[in-house]
Automatic annotation (TrEMBL):
<dbReference type="InterPro" id="IPR051850">
    <property type="entry name" value="Polysacch_Lyase_4"/>
</dbReference>
<dbReference type="InterPro" id="IPR010325">
    <property type="entry name" value="Rhamnogal_lyase"/>
</dbReference>
<dbReference type="InterPro" id="IPR014718">
    <property type="entry name" value="GH-type_carb-bd"/>
</dbReference>
<keyword id="KW-0472">Membrane</keyword>
<protein>
    <recommendedName>
        <fullName>Rhamnogalacturonan endolyase</fullName>
    </recommendedName>
</protein>
<dbReference type="Pfam" id="PF06045">
    <property type="entry name" value="Rhamnogal_lyase"/>
</dbReference>
<keyword id="KW-1133">Transmembrane helix</keyword>
<keyword id="KW-0812">Transmembrane</keyword>
<dbReference type="InterPro" id="IPR011013">
    <property type="entry name" value="Gal_mutarotase_sf_dom"/>
</dbReference>
<feature type="transmembrane region" description="Helical">
    <location>
        <begin position="6"/>
        <end position="26"/>
    </location>
</feature>
Length: 384
């Protein structure tokens, strides 16, 4: 065969393959049309759904009351009152009063985006200067659902205006409490994944030197007898806390995962430790806290100081696989894969708030950090 002949044969094969692939894609699109994102707005609640997961929030508060997925009507703790299942909260004080813990409760609800591919809703609360004993902070809690995405995102925009009173913020976090009869297996890292005790096991156990550490003397699961449970066992450096959560013992098993794609919105830097998931079953993402550090990491706003910050988005990822009945790490491994995908997608391009700085609006710094001490060391630096 001559060279030209070979070449043209190659072209034919290549052309045929391209045409074939196009056909498959076109056909594939028509055949695997995924359900669209929908908002169902009632007087006191709104449900976001995408055919995979339904999330119901209260209006105007923005409390997560229900998450339906994988054949389970509500993954959240239905034995708790509706305001104690999924929420953002804050611990704050002023020098003159005691520390107060407060849930962020919106007083107005707004649909920010409602298309086939994305829904974004907002729950805003605005400080009222004549109620001086209230937290001097405005908040805008956002919840986002994307098409074809098993889970939802949440982020918050918090703000103080000029002239507002002094406030100390000790702790700011988002919390999810799951069905305790369903979720028994927890995974924090490859080294820390295990079957966990029940909340009642802490009540029947013996409190040790501090109230968080409890010796399990009569646990529901006898295998755990003699162990100590303490939520601080599961604390992790910010830099390593990219995904953690629980796997249910339902059929099929369901994984409920907190994915934190980046640290830019957490105080304390990469080596700051904080809580992750613990007996409850509770799933946290902590953005500000004094844990393991003390007062230095409390955010202290003086009288008059202004501030604005976007916190998140974090991703609540749900997965399910019947093979996980025998091996829950299947869902942990899948959650890690999804975490890597979310990390690679950071900074996200979907949040609608213009306060969230998109990829195209960000710069990159590369170079070297010169630490000029007696030995003069050159350290390569990159913000990735
Ligand atoms: C989820 O929402 C869709 C659309 O609103 C609804 O048809 C479906 O019944 C809901 N599923 C569950 C389990 O609540
Ligand atoms: C409020 O918090 C600050 C900073 O952590 C602390 O110094 C102060 O003692 C606290 N005040 C009260 C009354 O708890
Ligand atoms: C602010 O608080 C005052 C005192 O409680 C109340 O009378 C007023 O209606 C509030 N204003 C708004 C905008 O909520
Ligand atoms: C379920 O897990 C098995 C074993 O890891 C895997 O082969 C299979 O692809 C998974 N199924 C889904 C739907 O992810
Ligand atoms: C390091 O600091 C010393 C003293 O200030 C200065 O003389 C020297 O030039 C500096 N070295 C570099 C590499 O900048």
């Amino acid at each position: 065969m001559g060279k030209n002949m070979q070449l043209s044969l190659l072209y034919v094969v290549e052309f045929t393959m391209v045409a074939f692939t196009l056909l498959l894609v076109v056909d594939g699109r028509r055949m695997i049309e995924t359900p669209i994102v929908r908002l169902d707005i009632q007087t006191n609640q709104v449900t976001m759904s995408n055919g995979i997961v339904n999330v119901t929030l209260s209006i105007p508060y923005g409390l997560v009351m229900s998450i339906s997925y994988g054949g389970v009507n509500n993954l959240l703790a239905t034995q708790n009152v509706e305001k104690n299942r999924g929420y953002w909260d804050i611990f704050w004080n002023r020098t003159t009063s005691k520390r107060a813990r407060k849930k962020f409760l919106g007083n107005s609800f707004e649909v920010i985006m409602d298309t086939e591919n994305q829904a974004e809703i907002s729950f805003k609360s605005t400080w009222n200067a004549s109620q001086s004993d209230e937290l001097p902070l405005n908040s805008d809690l956002r919840f986002v659902m994307l098409r074809d995405t098993p889970g939802f995102y949440t982020y918050a925009i918090v703000e103080r205006l000029e002239g507002w009173p002094l406030v100390y913020i000790e702790n700011l976090r988002v919390v999810f409490k799951l069905q305790q009869d369903m979720f028994h297996y927890m995974a924090i890292s490859d080294e820390r994944k295990r079957i966990m005790p029940m909340p009642v096991d802490r009540e029947t156990g013996k409190v040790l030197d501090y109230k968080e550490a409890v010796l399990l003397t009569n646990p529901t699961n006898p295998d755990l007898k003699g162990e100590v449970d303490d939520k601080y066992f599961y604390a992790t450096d910010n830099k390593d806390d990219r995904v953690h959560g629980w796997v249910s013992s339902t059929n099929p098993p369901v994984g409920f995962w907190m994915i934190i794609p980046n640290d830019e919105f957490r105080t304390g830097g990469p080596y700051k430790q904080d809580l992750t998931s613990h007996v409850g079953p509770t799933v946290l993402s902590i953005f500000v806290s004094r844990h393991f550090a003390g007062d230095d990491l409390v955010i202290k706003f003086q009288q008059g100081e202004r501030w604005k910050k976007v916190i998140g988005p974090v991703f609540l990822y749900l997965n399910s696989n019947s093979s996980a009945m025998d091996n829950p790490t299947i869902l942990w491994d899948d959650a890690k894969r999804r975490m890597n995908q979310e990390v690679a997608n950071w900074p996200y391009d979907f949040p609608v708030s213009e306060e969230y700085i998109k990829s195209s609006q960000r710069g990159i710094i590369r170079g070297q950090l010169l630490v000029n001490d007696s030995t003069t060391t050159l350290v390569p630096a990159s913000n990735g």
